[in-house]
Specification:
Length: 345
Amino acid sequence: MSNTNDATSAASNISSDVATLALVADIGGTNSRFAITDTATPELELLHARRYKNADYASLQHVIETYLTEIGIRPPRAAIAVASPVNTDNIRLTNLSWSFNREDLRKALGFDELQLLNDFGAVAWSVPALTAEHLMPLYVRNKNISRGPVTVLGPGTGLGVAMLVGNANTGWDVIETEGGHVSFAPLNAEEELINRWLTARHGRCSNERILCGSGMAQIDAVLRNQIDHATGQTQSVRDPADIVAAALAGHDNDARRTLARFCAILGSVCGDTALIHGSRALVIAGGIVPRFIPFLMASAFRERFLAKGRFVAYLENVDVFATTHPEPGLLGAANSLRNTHPLGP
């Protein structure tokens, strides 16, 4: 069943020239989001925006066909962001049991052109299109992002990482990465405990294993001593949304401890990635962090972001923002159609 939030309720409100319309999609591990954009309009708009639960559909083709049938529009072009690498013809989503061949999908859906983007490549493409309303400064000296490199990073179902290069005058490009899968580097005894538990369960602990929704639940279980080393199972796992809500309510010490650890680790990973990218700015995106930005700013995030030895001064000059746009993946997919194709990993 779709969760509808239409930017417009009638097809008559968009261009009558179907040739200029395009489908844009953001396919995450949990939800699929769709909209129609008109590439001929001066302003970038998302029309007929809808969201679907992936568990209700057998394949990507199935959910796209459902959306197009519901809105009654068949655009000739599409830009689809998926939570996986897109540098091959055969695509398998990282956190979802869907796979497809890009040319087979294009033909089955009748598109003249099908552009595939990594999901965080699409989020990176959204950054040049964000207005001040949806770009929240956290630690900044320059309130406008005018030059790259810009790191775009954020926890959601997984941990996305991409890089925006270029500038506002000559144009932007996106470098898609799988930076969320680099190895986690624990910095204290509490983080060593989390690292050992996740390594025992998965054979390796990446940053994504911790900085995502399920990772927050695992941090919480470890810190509450709800792990069974004999069976390899957690005895009591709380929903990450419940953990955040309890932490923000202020009466659950365990939840606050979990969220504080999550923010501290996020700070370390953001600082590391900014150094790797040589970033002038870093934008935190994803579906999790916008829910608790005041808590983040009161946490050890900034301390851990800067704790890079001789490069503290360098990182003090990296502007840190958070995007609060409700659909950055859709916005970025639409913006990518108006720009050059993103550079692959």
